[in-house]
Amino acid sequence: MNSRQENQRILILGTGVVAQMLAQEIKQNPECGFELIGLINERLPDVDPCRDFPVLGGMSDLNDIIRRERPHRLVMAQQNRQGFMPTNKLMEASFYNNIIVDHAEALYEKVTGKVPIDVQTQTTMLQSSNFRPSPLVEVVARVFSLVVALIGIVITAPLMLVIAVAIKLDSTGPVLFTQERIGRDCKSFLLYKFRTMMPQSAQQESASQWAGDNDHRITRVGRVLRKFRLDELPQFFNVLASDMNLVGPRPHPSSNYQMFSLVARNTPICGEQIPYYYLRSMVRPGITGWAQVRYQYANNLNEEIEKLRFDLYYVKHYSLWMDIRILIETLRVVYKGHEVGYQAVSGRRVDALDKPAALATGTRQ
């Protein structure tokens, strides 16, 4: 963030789920440029008590709290905005005191780089036109992906030949690993990767697909390929075949599609079943993606849902500039040959819009 925006003092209007989610993220990410002053009580009987953050008073006390605390930004996070929206007070704060008035969901996305799917409803999702990517942006991204994929194949062809020979000398089995994945509009396609594991036996076909459960199968060459992301090179051909772009949500195995869809529909705290998973397929999947440079590889369903939050943020903010930024971060990790950053263990994240993104260790897809 620029210096003018650093250390903005935030006052959250509400004490419910959305308010506490945002407060927690601001607390865990002091580098995001926001400082939490406290929360304003909605005085609703169904709102859970807030024990972790200071509650400075009720809505009737808002003017006094603003004069005393001098916030830079008021964030609306009420459970019931129609019944408890202090419109006149917010207009006075905005126009006369030059205070920014924001929605909790929008600020949550800015701080975390992910969509708070837990508290979304069908209405809020329908009202957002951002989940319908611009056709022009899609065409530009597609042409860009094709050009880079062609150049990539030409440049890396000798390297791919060396990798193929190394795989054959290191272990028995095919050079390429192929798997049916789910792509754009939920259509399946065959994804190509260099094989990094010992082949499964017939008895192991139903074994876990989480990488953490299969570390013992990784070959010596496979560990090197994974370290530098070289096992992904054959996906340049998936890009040429129009199955993928360079950047996008990583395609999930088709065998897990129904499970991911069901879990995603039943995730929201709001209680509504919403087809979030389908929104993920509004754009072509990618060799790398926003979730890959912001979060660890998923090794269980909870981590897959966390990655879904990042994937939906990418779809919602889809742009060529964002693709270029993700590619730069991916090249940074490939160049260093190791994962940097995070996050899942410590719970801290770098700022989604202005800080360097990071890859973390975990499961491969």
Provide a descriptive summary of the structure in words:
This protein is an alpha/beta fold and 365 residues long. It has 2 domains: 3-112, NAD(P)-binding Rossmann-like Domain (Rossmann fold, 3-Layer(aba) Sandwich), CATH 3.40.50; 135-336, no CATH class. Helices cover 40% and strands 13% of the residues. It has a 5-stranded parallel sheet with strand order 3-2-1-4-5, with helices on both faces. The protein has a two-stranded antiparallel ribbon with strand order 6-7. A two-stranded parallel ribbon has the order 8-9. Strand 4, helix 3 and strand 5 (100-103) form a beta-alpha-beta unit. The radius of gyration is 23 Å and the shape is elongated. The two termini are 32 Å apart. The model is unreliable at 339-363 (pLDDT under 50).
Q: Please indicate the percent range of residues in DSSP E strands (runs of 2 or more).
A: 5-15%
Largest sheet: 5 strands, parallel
Tell me the strand order in the biggest sheet.
3-2-1-4-5
Question: Number of DSSP helices?
Answer: 13
What is the overall silhouette? elongated
Low-pLDDT runs of 5+ residues are 339-363
Q: What is the fold's blueprint, element by element?
A:
Blueprint lengths: L7 E6 L3 H12 L5 E8 L13 E4 L3 H8 L3 E4 L10 H10 L3 E4 H9 L9 H6 L7 H36 L5 E7 L5 E7 L25 H8 L7 H6 L4 E3 L9 H9 L10 H5 L5 E3 L1 H5 L6 H16 L3 H17 L29
Parallel strand pairs: 1-2, 1-4, 2-3, 4-5, 8-9
Antiparallel strand pairs: 6-7
Helix pairs in contact: 1-4, 6-7
